[in-house]
Structure formats: structure tokens, C-alpha cells
Automatic annotation (TrEMBL):
It comes from Clavibacter michiganensis subsp. insidiosus. It comes from the Bacteria. This is CGNR zinc finger domain-containing protein. The lineage of its organism: Bacteria, Bacillati, Actinomycetota, Actinomycetes, Micrococcales. PANTHER family: BLL6575 PROTEIN. Residues 59-101 form the Zinc finger CGNR domain.
Amino acid sequence: VRGDAAAVAELAAVVDGAVRTPRVTADGVVWELRVPHDDRLPVDAVLAWSTVTARLPGRLRPCANAECELFLLDRSRPGTAKWCSMATCGNRMKARAHAQRVRD
């Protein structure tokens, strides 16, 4: 979504159609997600995103390469990972920085 107002509005409309309802079973209360079939995947993605950001605050973030559209789940000990992949974005960005230093 990354600042795209139209995408935010579209995703909000999909998520607004989802409803969690309680169902009592012999084992206790189970919460069921009711959502139109076509909207299930985006709603599941939003719920997964929400769970990860709640359990690992600050660890799910966009790749530092502004040209990349991917996100990374930072599992490094200090929490300082920048790139979705060191092999692609990390290498490209470090090569650009090196080339810039050589030019200057």
C-alpha cells in the first residue's frame, strides 16, 4: 500500500467486510472469521501482518531500497537488517554507494 491512498481505501473496504464471530464449543469459545470467499486472501494477509507486527514490533518493514516493493522480516539479533535480500537489493545498494564514493 505504501502511501497509495486508492490502495488503502480498497484494502479498507475489503477488511471492513470481514467479521469475527464467537462460537461456543465443548472446548470453549472459538472465534470464526466470516468473509466473502473472494476477499479471504487479502483479509488473511492483513491478519497475518497484524499478528507479526504485534509480536515482533519494528521487525516487519519495507526494504531500504526505494526501488524495491518487498518487505523484510528482520530476524537479526540487533534488529538492523535493511534489505529484503542481501543477494539482490543489499548488493545493488552497496555497489551504488561504493560507485558514488569512488566518483566523489
